[in-house]
């Protein structure tokens, strides 16, 4: 177990995810969000993607040994308080990352199960999804699936607010808590997310913003949650602050003129 955060410590957050060469999602979005919300960002790259605001064109997994080496380098030197896990391309990578998390035991682990890109592209095989459930979710304090990802994980249809049975199905995946992101619903004036654990239920609302600038929103939100946890916030308050942050980043995205598809948010509004 690493040392806990002292009043004079730098809140360090490690992001473990794939690289987005267009800069709007993945490792690049994570580092921007962690930095903008006041923590120190370090990173372990798990895959190199060829993508932009319109599509994911190719994914090159980083060798497992290189991922393990990066993790060992970071954890052997930096006092990582929280980690955010994003895209893990295949089952061996998921197993390796889960083992290192169990070995090093950072105080907080936030997993964004990146299975479907904003563009709609599937990013993980069925075997990788099953390995997420078996190996990674049980070491997570929080998972942050969106509605399409929740459907893949449970086989349920999430058309309305999650039922008690659907909440239980997501919690049975093994994480201590679930933040179900409702941003994909287009039939509501609100962007609503649901937090639930064995002891807690809470809803987080924000005005729905009609915009094409949604590239990397899931990466950004989960990274901001990890950042605020590293700074000592309790989970509900960390989510509340992260929700406010991503909302303002989306509102301010019109300041940018990046890409011809779904543009990135403005992390440094």
TrEMBL record:
* Entry keywords, A to Z: Kinase, Transferase
Q: Provide the GO MF annotations for this entry.
A: hydroxymethylpyrimidine kinase activity; phosphomethylpyrimidine kinase activity
- Give its E.C. classification number: 2.7.1.49
- SUPFAM superfamilies this protein is in? Ribokinase-like
Q: Reply yes or no: does the keyword Isomerase apply.
A: no
Note whether Transit peptide occurs among the keywords: no
Record pathway: Cofactor biosynthesis; thiamine diphosphate biosynthesis
Q: Top-level EC class, please?
A: transferase
Residues annotated as domain Pyridoxamine kinase/Phosphomethylpyrimidine kinase: 20-265
Instruction: Specify the superkingdom.
Output: Bacteria
**Pfam families, from UniProt?**
Phos_pyr_kin
The molecule here is called hydroxymethylpyrimidine kinase
